[in-house]
Amino acid sequence: MDTWTFGWSVALIGMGGTVLILWILSLLILMIKKVFPYQPEK
Amino acid sequence: MESALVNGLQGLVVGIVSLTLGQVFMIAVACVLLYLGIAKGYEPLLLVPIGFGAIMVNIPLADMMGKDGFLRFFYDAGVLTEVFPLLIFIGIGAMTDFQPLLQNPKIILLGAAGQFGIFITLLLALALGFDKLDAVAVAVIGACDGPTAIYVSSKFAPHMLGAVSVAAYSYMSLVPLIQPPIMRMLTTTNERQIVMGAAKTAPISKTAKIVFPIVVTIFASILAPKGAPLIATIMLGNLLRESGCVERLKSCSENELTNIVTLLLGLCIGATMEADKFLKAQTLLVLLLGFLAICIDTGVGVLFGKAMCALTGGKINPLIGAAGISAFPMSARVVQAEGQKYNKKSYLLMHAMSANAGGQIGSVIAAAVMLSVLQGMGIVGG
User: Fold this and answer.
1) B379 and A9 in contact by Cβ < 8 A?
2) Lower CB density within 10 Å: C or N end of chain A?
3) Contact state of A22 with B106 under an 8 Å Cβ cutoff
4) Residue B38 in domain
5) Is residue B184 part of a domain?
6) Which among B199, B204, B218, B172 is positioned nearest to B98, based on CA atoms?
7) For B193, left (φ over 0), alpha (ψ -120 to 50), or beta?
8) Hey, is the C-beta of A41 within 8 angstroms of any chain B C-beta?
9) ipTM at complex level
10) By C-alpha distance, which of B339, B300, B355 is closest to B110?
11) Model-level pTM?
């Protein structure tokens, strides 16, 4: 694999992958908050 | 008798005779690092052992990084095996409160924008003629995250560990100087004056805080398995913190463990700064690219903040985008200070803390994604 194919592939998949995973994590956080909502102590 | 005296005296002067100009220069560099750490307070926990390690390794004939050298032992045991940065991650996880992120999860996307410097720097490094894996090691300085930079460079380019680590920690400590001019350059006065609504401070349940590190470890590690050690260790530390039932382990992780490993890691990084290996044109390029990486992180973060500002009809102050890097909580404080300069009624700290916590996770995820992509391409082994 030549240098530029390598560089652009890693850059594009890397940026896209990072955004995608963090977006999924934000959805997971929302889900966790819904499943385990805060309940004030009695 | 006479020859015995001469030979004995020779033993005392042989070190001076063997001292090279390069070693003198590197000892001077080490003293600058010590000065920055001790007198200026720039990341002293790392710069002091790094500086001292650099002095030790440049003492002629002491051979502390030789086959049986004292520093070689720790380097082989902790750096070559990648154990030290991972142990530090446990401590970082134990010290980090992800509550601001849990309260405002959308802001985590700013933590992604703050990592773009890694990938743009990769292209710049390749353009400057760096080998593929060397370029990866240089680019990861853009994670703005010392342990991640050390983990990646010790894995793929151990010969560059000294330059990469020094660049990563030096620029992290210079965030208050590097970021503000870029923030001002990319935003208008009106944008900097935007007052954001009160940060969401809705309480988060204890169960949610405990489940968070477990879920992140499982999902993020499955998606980017090559970076699983990075993700798992920081989340393990956070689980120790949030579980509330292992106070001793939490306390050990954020104190004794982190302190001991920081000391040894710092010495080992300094030990890679031997004159004949460090004094190369390539080192200057690494320092330059590292600087650019952090500037690009800040710039892209602010631009992403501007996009969010436009999409929300001006409800988001773009300055908080600059906090999407891993320098926690320093970057959030910089954003707060900068916002206050232009509007005394603007309190950006909690919003910036959310972005900053996102940046901490983002840097680990970005490195994990890059390692997994490299594995997928067959550039590195499985």
Assistant:
1) no
2) C
3) no
4) yes
5) yes
6) B204
7) alpha
8) no
9) 0.92
10) B355
11) 0.86
**A5 CB within 8 Å of a chain B CB:** no
**Quick check: helix, strand or coil at residue B52?**
helix
Question: Minimal Cα distance from A35: which residue of B?
Answer: B208
Residue B254 lies in a domain: yes
Asked if residue B365 is part of any domain, the answer here is: yes
Give the number of other CB atoms < 10 A from CB of residue A42: 3
Q: Give me the CATH number covering residue B21.
A: 1.20.1530
Q: So what's the pLDDT on residue B71?
A: 92
pLDDT tens digits, A1-42:
889 999 999 999 999 999 999 999 999 999 999 999 988 766
List phi, psi (to 5°) of B50. Answer: -65, -50
Q: How far is CA B43 from the centre of its chain?
A: 11
Nearest Cα neighbor of B274 from B69, B40, B108 is B69
A42: contact with B, CB 8 A cutoff? no
Cα nearest neighbour of A11 on chain B: B119
DSSP conformation class of A36: S
Q: Token match 């390690």: residue?
A: B53
Domains contained in chain B, number: 1
pLDDT at A41: 67
| pLDDT means over runs of 10, chain B (382 residues) | 84 86 94 92 87 94 88 91 92 91 88 92 95 93 88 89 86 87 94 81 89 95 90 95 95 95 92 88 92 94 93 91 87 92 88 89 92 88 65
- The shortest C-alpha distance from A29 to chain B (Å) reads 6
With beta carbons under 8 A apart, name residues in chain A contacting B373: 9-10, 13-14, 17
B340 lies in which domain range? 17-376
Query: Which phi and psi (to 5°) does residue B63 adopt?
Result: 55, 45
